[in-house]
């Protein structure tokens, strides 16, 4: 009987650590999603600003500045 309770304690500890890991993963995923969203919004804002100023798209602009690679 003593061994069973040790095994049960071990399982409870394992479950608790799994929950902690899952929480950490969820938190990390939320942070990464927020960063991605922020980056997308910044790019949209940057593109809109450039279009208002009458400049070409940032991709064309950056390619035009770089010499062709050969």
In short:
The chain is an all-alpha fold and 70 residues long. Helices cover 84% and strands 0% of the residues. The protein is elongated, with a radius of gyration of 26 Å.
Task: Walk me through the structure.
The chain is mainly α and 70 residues long. It has one domain (2-65). It is 84% helix and 0% strand. It is built from two helices and no strands. The radius of gyration is 26 Å and the shape is elongated.
Q: Give, in order, the helices and strands.
A: HH
How helical, in percent, are the residues? over 70%
Number of domain modules: 1
The major pleated sheet works out as: none
How much strand?
under 5%
- Stretches where pLDDT is under 50 for at least 5 consecutive residues are none
Terminus-to-terminus distance: 76 Å
Look at the helices and sheets and give the structural class.
mainly alpha
Overall pLDDT: 80
Number of strands: 0
Approximate shape: elongated
CA gyration radius, whole angstroms: 26 Å
Instruction: Tell me the number of helical segments per DSSP (H or I, 4 or more residues long).
Output: 2
């Amino acid at each position: 009987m003593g061994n069973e309770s040790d095994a049960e304690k071990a399982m409870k500890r394992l479950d608790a650590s799994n929950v902690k890991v899952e929480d950490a993963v969820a938190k990390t995923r939320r942070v990464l999603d927020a960063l991605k969203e922020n980056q997308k919004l910044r790019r949209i804002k940057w593109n809109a600003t450039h279009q208002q100023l009458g400049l070409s798209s940032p991709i064309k602009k950056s390619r035009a500045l770089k010499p062709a690679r050969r």
